Amino acid sequence: MNRVQVHDTLRADHRFQDGALPHVCGVRSFQILRANRAHPEYADGLGWTYNHAPMLVYAYDWYFCEYLSNPVDEHEVPGHTLLTRSRDGIEWESPQIAFPEVEADTTPYRGPKSPLLEKTMLTVPHQRMGFYLDHAGVLLVLSFYGIVHDRHMSMPCDGWGIGRAVRRVFPDGHLGDIYFLIFNEPAGFTRENTHLFPHYSQSGDPEFIQACEELLHNGAAMRQMYEEQRFDRSLFPNAGAEALSYYTARDGRMVGMYKKSLVSYSDDQGQTWTDPEKHMSIHTWSGKVWGQKTSDGRYALLYNPTFDGQHRWPIAAVTGEDGYAFHHLAAITQDMSPQRYGGLDKNLGPQYMRGIAECNVTRPDDPEIHLVYSNNKEDIWISHIPVPLNTQGAAEGSMTWEHGFPDGLGVYSPVWAPVRIRNDELVLQDRDPYDRATVEVALGDMLTGQVRADFRVMSVAEPGCITMELQDPAGRVVFRLFLKSNHTVYLLHDGRTEPFAQWAPGEDLHLLIEPDTACGRMRVRFGDLEKTLMYNASVNSLARFFIATKVRIPGLSTLDSCGKYGRREDILPACDLPAGLTEVRIQSICWKHTEPVSDT
């Protein structure tokens, strides 16, 4: 019997945000929510800084993203679930509260008791599955109402919560009334004693009722609910595990992926499952794993490739042909902002990734994987990942922007450091004191060649610094050029940063780099100036041309950082207000491989 196995000897080096892994080409990542405690008008209007566990679906020609939110800490009372949507997966609407905090009567509660358990308590939502799209196109959004009375004895996902809530999402984005799909009877909550919301069967919407009943008979979709309702043996006759994602392998068998490298299988389309077993070739721990079939008929697993659950970076992918054997570990995320706010159990890094579940797929020929995740359990992101996944890029190309983001362009776009196309220019702006905008172009394993960029710098504000680099697959920098706020262009050479040229706001600028890896040197032309430099690192080939609005992100999380026992006060000062504007506008990026001129 086939078993999932990752056949890859490459390992992530977590001293680096991308794990020093090859990058998947053309990943475009956009921040959906930048949490803001002091100025919530810049964020969701609420000011809560624990935001986590996003879910994703595509319906009615919209992307919908649902996520959990608490004021400061994980599993903190109170909590609610938010919903936002986007036409293009780039610009997102202000979120609405999909499942609000409510006060529940805890009299029926049968779980572990503590002196902190009161007769009525505010609820804390939790969900391991967020959406269900039925065969008629009715979209449901779901959450689970949990109870947290003592952080040492209770969690909203411990099996002792109230029940699974559901409501309809209509094509215009408005939400129907809230109902319970399932009351958590093993925990003591029944239709008779729980009156927060009615049972779904009491709805006057027959399409909604039909969608709920279809969901209840979908074994794979229901299996995602195991953790919160683990004691319900009528739903789950055998053990499950945390955070199921699933896909149908090439042989028709369903594969279930969980946290902590656990895997189970189903031979009857998700109606019954084997007990989860450890598959140690999947090098991950407490972050989620996402698995899916891709539009090219292949398969991808996406996860944090580390056994260190406190430092969850990067998100990486492996791919395979049949849903069992996987290869070619490569980074999906490259940059990540530091944790800005304290809070309990706020693991660091991009994590808890979810794509569009197999039961919700409306575009089987979609040329991208769409993946939502949180960063540091405070910001929400989405990455659009081209299919097929590759790390090489093309040996020659010319990028302009008349038709949107071109294939092969990697984008990292925070809310306060957006990357957009305007007036046929690729515009990188940056007002974020603790993040940056970046783009990168895969160079197709270049040995000798030419890389050209035509651009204009409009402004540079401290600590901004427009930087352009040539990197190898592990991120070693052989070439770096800076444009600083003093209108001077600098080159990194022989361990020194030396002035090279001048720039003026709005002036057309032209950079040509001609690297020759065999002899470890390059010729650099900037306007009318020219200089020959040695490489700044020993490399075998060049992988990417990289542009950013800062040389590095201030306050970056390291392996010495810890988010588990964070203070309630802010960690980073002045993180709630935008900084001065850095802006660069790129007209084109061109590159090609050439034959070596010399091997000396």
Structural account:
This protein is mainly beta and 600 residues long. It is built from two helices and 39 strands. The strands form seven sheets. Strands 22-23-24-2-26-29-38-31-32-33-34 form an eleven-stranded mixed beta sheet, with no helix packed on it. It is globular. The termini are far apart.
Please give the structural blueprint.
Blueprint: E1 5-6, E2 28-33, E3 50-59, E4 62-70, E5 80-86, E6 96-99, E7 103-105, E8 120-122, E9 124-126, E10 131-133, E11 139-146, E12 163-169, E13 179-183, H1 206-216, H2 219-223, E14 245-248, E15 254-257, E16 262-266, E17 277-278, E18 290-293, E19 299-303, E20 316-320, E21 325-331, E22 350-354, E23 368-375, E24 379-386, E25 396-399, E26 409-413, E27 419-422, E28 425-430, E29 438-446, E30 449-459, E31 466-471, E32 477-483, E33 488-493, E34 496-502, E35 509-516, E36 521-526, E37 529-534, E38 542-548, E39 582-593
Parallel strand pairs: 1-21, 2-26
Antiparallel strand pairs: 2-24, 3-4, 4-5, 5-6, 7-8, 9-11, 10-11, 11-12, 12-13, 14-15, 15-16, 16-17, 18-19, 19-20, 20-21, 22-23, 23-24, 25-39, 26-29, 27-28, 28-39, 29-38, 30-35, 30-39, 31-32, 31-38, 32-33, 33-34, 35-36, 36-37
